[in-house]
Amino acid sequence: MSEFFSEGSFTFLRELAANNNRDWFNANKARYESEVREPARAFIRAMEPELKRFAPHFVASDKKVGGSLMRIFRDVRFSKNKQPYKTNIGIQFRHELGKDVHAPGFYLHIEASEVFVGAGIWHPDSDTLKKIRTYIDAHPTRWTDGRDDAAFAKAYALAGDSLSRAPKGYAPDHPLIEDIKRKDFIGIAPLMPELILQDDLTGLIAGYFETATPFMRELCRAVGVSY
Known about the structure:
single chain, BirA Bifunctional Protein, domain 2, 5-stranded antiparallel beta sheet, alpha+beta, globular
């Protein structure tokens, strides 16, 4: 039995998906606190010593606002989907320089029907994207060694958006053009939802994060931050 999340956590997420409105959420806010936010904050605190062991520059912050737990409120200003709440628990462990540069990070996504671990950079800004592409071009062996590390490649699949054509300055027949065309540099490892309820959740998730070390180290080198 998990010391963090419970069947109640998944029940709340399923019911929120079916009742995604402010009246329902306000009536069930105490459940959100007890079944989602506080278990997530406890998990984040437990992850801090794990991260210090193999990724000391990544931050586990249990702050209620602005920490590792992402807001449940959706930004609907520019979205056709006007539902006010996210129906997942999103936990991000940002690089200590993440607020100043678009640095790599670790991520845990918990939804009633989908759970996955992520590692990398999602939607980097143009300057960061240029740095990564330049690094891939200049250090192809280092890059492919990290990307194709056996343990990482077994657990993760690269995901995200890519350009349809080679970006300016790169030949269409460049040997790493498919990587250079990427707009996201993120590995996704799917998990069975029931694993979130098992004992030693921190060990499980930390193990997945640590497996991504070769890939994350290359991304950190690319953008000029320490791993």
